[in-house]
Amino acid sequence: MTDPEPSARRPYRVGYAPGAYDLFHIGHLNILRHARSRCDYLVAGVVSDEMAELAKGQRPMIPLVERLEIVRSVKYVDAAFVETVPDKVETWKQVRFDVIFKGDDWRGTPKGEKLERDFAAHGVDVVYFPYTVHTSSTQLRRALDALARPGQPPLPEQQLTAERR
């Protein structure tokens, strides 16, 4: 799917921005800010600890209740929803959004293409925003792990990028 023209302001009524939002950082804030600029009402989907572990192979460092409170407190977010199922269409059946926002690291990947196919059948657009390359929860977690285990070099950026997909 193609993104709307930058000059088009708020072309959607309800937007959905899912994520783990672990170790909340500027990349998370950027996604939420950009998403809110494209819709009248923004719901942030905060994945449960179990869902995050299923998707990423490890539980978030910050517990769900705290991640939810952080995301709810962001001024761009109108509501926060705990995402407990892996199927985004099942989430859509509960939240009923017009557009789902993802980082452009999903664009062109098997996960992104599946998301686009699944939502096209329901008239929901997928809009990608630039991924904040210099900061990610994965990078922050690796840095914290390296501090906890001196002498272990952090992973190269290429490996971190591959792990995100």
Features:
disordered N terminus; 165 residues; disordered C terminus; five-stranded parallel beta sheet; alpha/beta
Provide structural commentary.
The chain is of the alpha/beta class and 165 residues long. Helices cover 41% and strands 19% of the residues. The chain has 7 helices and 5 strands, in the order E-H-E-H-H-E-H-E-H-E-H-H. The chain has helices at residues 26-37, 49-56, 64-72, 88-95, 110-120, 137-148, 157-164; strands at 12-19, 39-47, 79-83, 99-103, 125-129. Strands 3-2-1-4-5 form a 5-stranded parallel sheet. Strand 1, helix 1 and strand 2 form a beta-alpha-beta unit. The radius of gyration is 16 Å and the shape is globular. The model is unreliable at 1-7 and 157-165 (pLDDT under 50).
Brief description of this entry?
With 165 residues, the protein is an alpha/beta fold. The protein contains seven helices and five strands, in the order βαβααβαβαβαα.
Layout: helices, strands, pairs:
Blueprint: E1 12-19, H1 26-37, E2 39-47, H2 49-56, H3 64-72, E3 79-83, H4 88-95, E4 99-103, H5 110-120, E5 125-129, H6 137-148, H7 157-164
Strand % is: 15-25%
How large, in whole angstroms, is the Cα Rg?
16 Å
Low-confidence stretches: 1-7, 157-165
- Helical content (DSSP H or I, runs of 4+): 40-55%
User: How many β-strand runs?
Assistant: 5
Largest sheet properties: 5 strands, parallel
**What would you call the structural class?**
alpha/beta
What average pLDDT do the residues reach?
83
Order of strands in the sheet with the most strands? Answer: 3-2-1-4-5
- SSE run: EHEHHEHEHEHH
